[in-house]
Inverse folding.
């Protein structure tokens, strides 16, 4: 059994969500189904916020066994004058400061009851006690996701930036070796862009495409939108495209029309479907989708069931002949490997190699035009969020049911500035984005981009699950929690893990030595 107690302070709106996050972590690590986790997160968060808004303070106590999550939310008063009224949807006694922050809609207790299997509440002037149970079921089906980030440990200077910045805490420093935990990594670009010494790169050989017949038998080269926009700004897009046609007989196309087609298709999906899960998450960033599969599986049902634009484009052009694609993040490489693992019809070229090839090709650049268009304003039902920190905050809110229903579509990008913030560019991403939206730059009327194909539904990933069954996972979790008690709780990263809890997992599962922690006295280590 796993258990814990979280103190909840009156009026601590900024701290709201700590209890739900801790319980979510426990349920994820023991392998509970995504739908159960979503119900638990909503119920615990509402109970936590009730204490923050309406009481003098209290605590959330939880117990997890093989079958059930049990939660008690206990506060120290002033109680609930009329429980029958409090259970009605829309009834609220929240103070003005809570309403200004978006709380106090009168849905707290009704939401808890709706998402639990057993619900009990009692109140007096001395305080309120709320109890609820949720029956647990294991997650059965998982999807395996290859990791396409590779570290070069000899370049590491132990600055610890990577282990602190990785959104899923997938990086470890074990002695002089940089390790990536494959079950956590979501193939984003964060470590590639944050490392000052270039330790991380795509797991993709950097070759010279004009040698060894690499370009032979190609029919199409597909260039992602940000790469095409960068080349246009530098005055290279149209001359290089013409050079490739004349020199190699290869057609060079961009993803820009396909990106626009995906946007239009998701709009149609929204208008033509009776959707229960809003907002719809547009499948624009495979890193974010893999992140959802790993840490937010309850949000899979929010993702529009369409192919990524780069996959739809490849799927079309590969029917005409061999295709060369330039991936701009490891998640694109991983997605392509899953779909085209044994195909000889697709070649991949590292973006660094593409830029080297273009620089060495003999053609004259034209003067790059300055961007003259303004960034298109999003409709009020649609929003784009970029960067791992803002995206994480949004997914946390969505999982807790705290995103307003007026938002219908959201585009989530792991990179700052969206795909235009990929690591191998020196241009400001929003500038590239403005350029993409200039309608006269690239042909967007091609017939083939008018249809995107439905994709198979995504499945959760094993992620941070500790064992094959809930029982085995609980046993490992108990061992980890026991070991964490001997650690100082500094979360400094000096041991090579981002947090003390992660280091406790290293000790429990990977036999890491407690000697790596510099803050434990030698006598305690020996004992």
């Amino acid at each position: 059994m796993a258990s814990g107690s979280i103190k909840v302070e009156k009026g601590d709106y900024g701290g709201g969500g700590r209890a739900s996050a801790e319980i979510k972590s426990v349920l994820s690590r023991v392998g509970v189904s995504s739908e159960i986790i979503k119900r638990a997160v909503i119920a615990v968060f509402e109970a936590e916020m009730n204490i923050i808004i309406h009481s003098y303070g209290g605590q959330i106590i939880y117990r997890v066994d093989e079958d059930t999550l049990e939660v008690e939310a206990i506060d120290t008063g002033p109680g609930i004058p009329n429980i029958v009224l409090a259970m009605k949807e829309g009834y609220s006694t929240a103070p003005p400061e809570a309403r200004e922050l978006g709380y106090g809609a009168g849905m707290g207790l009704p939401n808890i009851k709706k998402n639990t299997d057993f619900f009990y509440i009692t109140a007096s002037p001395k305080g309120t006690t709320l109890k609820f149970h949720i029956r647990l079921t294991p997650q059965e089906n998982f999807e395996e996701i290859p990791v396409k980030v590779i570290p070069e440990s000899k370049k590491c200077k132990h600055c610890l930036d990577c282990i602190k910045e990785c959104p899923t805490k997938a990086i470890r420093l074990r002695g002089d070796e940089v390790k990536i935990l494959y079950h956590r990594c979501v193939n984003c670009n964060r470590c590639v862009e944050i490392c000052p010494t270039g330790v991380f790169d795509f797991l993709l050989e950097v070759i010279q495409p004009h040698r060894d017949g690499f370009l032979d038998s190609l029919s199409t080269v597909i260039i992602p939108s940000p790469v095409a926009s960068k080349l246009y700004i530098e005055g290279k897009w149209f001359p290089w495209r013409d050079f490739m046609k004349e020199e190699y007989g290869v057609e060079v196309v961009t993803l820009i029309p396909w990106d626009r087609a995906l946007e239009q298709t998701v709009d149609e999906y929204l208008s033509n479907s009776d959707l229960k899960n809003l907002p719809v998450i547009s499948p624009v960033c495979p890193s974010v989708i893999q992140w959802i599969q790993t840490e937010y599986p309850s949000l899979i049902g929010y993702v529009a069931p369409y192919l990524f634009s780069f996959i739809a484009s490849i799927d079309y052009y590969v029917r005409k002949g061999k295709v060369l694609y330039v991936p701009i993040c490891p998640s694109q490489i991983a997605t392509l490997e899953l779909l085209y693992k044994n195909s000889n019809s697709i070649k991949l070229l590292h973006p660094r190699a593409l830029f080297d090839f273009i620089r060495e090709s003999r053609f004259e650049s034209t003067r790059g035009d300055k961007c003259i268009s303004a960034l298109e304003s999003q409709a009020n039902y649609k929003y784009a969020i970029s960067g791992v920190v803002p995206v994480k905050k949004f997914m946390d809110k969505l999982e807790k049911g705290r995103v307003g229903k007026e938002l219908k579509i959201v585009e989530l990008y792991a990179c700052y500035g969206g795909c235009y913030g990929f690591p191998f560019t020196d241009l400001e991403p929003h500038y590239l984005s403005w350029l993409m939206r200039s309608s006269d730059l690239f042909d967007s009327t091609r017939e083939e981009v008018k249809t995107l194909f439905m994709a198979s539904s995504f499945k959760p990933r094993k992620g941070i699950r500790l064992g094959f069954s809930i029982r085995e996972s609980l046993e490992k979790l108990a061992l980890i929690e026991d070991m964490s008690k001997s650690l100082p709780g500094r979360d400094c990263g000096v041991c090579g893990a981002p947090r003390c809890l992660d280091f406790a997992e290293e000790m429990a599962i990977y036999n890491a030595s407690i000697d790596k922690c510099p803050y434990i006295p030698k006598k305690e280590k020996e004992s």
User: Anything to note?
Assistant: DSSP finds 19 helices and 16 strands in the chain. The longest helix spans residues 34-54. The chain has a mean pLDDT of 87.
